[in-house]
Amino acid sequence: MEETWTKKELNSFRTMIKDKRESVIIELDEARERAESFTTGDSVNAIYSSHMADAGSDQQEREKLFYFLKRETEFLKYLDRALEMMDEGTFGICKTCKKKIAEERLIEVPHTTQCFSCKSKVKF
Ligand SMILES: [Zn+2]
Q1: Residue 62 lies in a domain
Q2: Domain with 65 in it
Q3: pTM for the model
Q4: Is the per-residue pLDDT at 48 higher than 80?
C-alpha cells in the first residue's frame, strides 16, 4: 500500500522549506554583496599591494565566499525542487518502495526521492 503524508504534515514541511529558503536568500544576498566588494576593491588593492599577507587572506576569504555562494545556490535549487515535488505529490515518498521517507532525512535533504534503505541498496 502506498503511504501518504497528511495535509497537516505537508504544510509543516512546506513552512520549514519556505523558512529555509528565505534565510538562504538573505545569506546569498549578503554573500553576493561581499563578493562584489571584493571584485570592485581589486584595483584599490593593487595600488596598496605592499601588504602581501593581507592580499593572501583576502584571496582565501574570496574563495571561501565563492564556494559558499555555489553551495547555497545549489541548496536553493533543491528547496525549490522540494516545493515542486509537493505540488506534484511526490514529496517525501520513496519512488522505489512507495513508503514515507524519514522526517529527519527530509529535513536534511528535502528534495530526496528515495528513503535511506532503498538508496543504500541501489548499486549503479
Ligand atoms: Zn524506499
Answers
A1: yes
A2: 7-92
A3: 0.78
A4: no
